[in-house]
Automatic annotation (TrEMBL):
SUPFAM superfamilies: Ribosomal protein L4 (SSF52166)
Family according to the record: Belongs to the universal ribosomal protein uL4 family.
UniProtKB keywords: Ribonucleoprotein, Ribosomal protein, RNA-binding, rRNA-binding
PANTHER family according to UniProt: 50S RIBOSOMAL PROTEIN L4, LARGE RIBOSOMAL SUBUNIT PROTEIN UL4M
Organism: Parvularcula bermudensis (strain ATCC BAA-594 / HTCC2503 / KCTC 12087)
High-level lineage: Bacteria, Pseudomonadati, Pseudomonadota, Alphaproteobacteria, Parvularculales
Signal peptide feature range: none
Listed name of the protein: Large ribosomal subunit protein uL4
Spans through the membrane: none
Length: 220
């Protein structure tokens, strides 16, 4: 399929053929959901902790009479039913990460890109650079493109462009190696440069994807 390539000033700079196996799929919500759950689980800190009965202070002597108190024959103040006692089956420090096959991860990224293309939320630009590195200047250029909340992906992020975009609310900039399903889906628009499209092709092709797997996991 063909798509227009624009400049940051919203003028046409040519066109580009997009691969149907990456940008022309019918998005599958189940695959996208699996990826987002996997990605968010990796980000979860897992530092939640509650003290159990072996970690709180309390007597382990029998503290009421055997008979006559009208209550049970308790012999441990650290039991969960007492105020100040330990938590029964409370949360423990652990990792929430789980495995997701690389093939599924690559497929999910293809479906995320296809979802943006199918919803007319994909914009291809010639390059993501600004001569005048100012937030106001970049905001005006993005306004010409009709963009407010967007993710900009380039092969390698231009330092000046990233600095200009840093204070724009809702605008994030990522290199191709950091492109991920969650960030693509949570933004209203996806902006790719020509170089980013070629970089995504290389990343999503089998051999290149295997070589960059470690970097990809670190980025996500």
């Amino acid at each position: 399929m063909q798509i227009d390539v624009l400049t940051l000033d919203a003028s046409k700079a040519g066109d580009l053929d997009l691969r149907d196996d990456i940008f022309g799929l019918e998005p599958r919500a189940d695959i996208l959901h699996r990826y987002v759950v996997w990605q968010q689980a990796k980000r979860q800190q897992g530092t939640h902790k509650a003290k159990e009965r072996g970690e709180v202070t309390g007597t382990t002597k029998k503290f009421v009479r055997q008979k006559g108190s009208g209550g049970a024959r308790h012999g441990n103040r650290k039991a969960p039913q007492f105020v100040g006692g330990g938590k029964a089956h409370g949360p423990r420090v652990r990792s929430h990460a789980h495995d997701l096959p690389k093939k599924v991860r690559r497929l999910a990224l293809r479906h995320a890109l296809s979802a943006k293309q199918g919803a007319a939320e994909l914009i291809i630009i010639d390059e993501a650079t600004v001569a005048d590195v100012k937030t106001k200047v970049l905001a005006e250029k993005l306004q010409k493109l009709g963009v407010r909340n967007s993710l900009v992906i380039d092969q390698s992020v231009d330092e000046g462009f990233a600095r200009a975009a840093r204070n724009l609310d809702g605008v994030d900039v990522l290199p191709v190696i950091g492109a991920n399903v969650y960030d693509i889906l949570r933004h209203d628009k996806l902006i790719l440069t020509r170089a980013a499209v070629e970089g995504l092709y290389a990343r999503l092709d089998g051999s290149a994807a295997v070589q960059s797997a470690a970097q990809e996991e670190a980025a996500e």
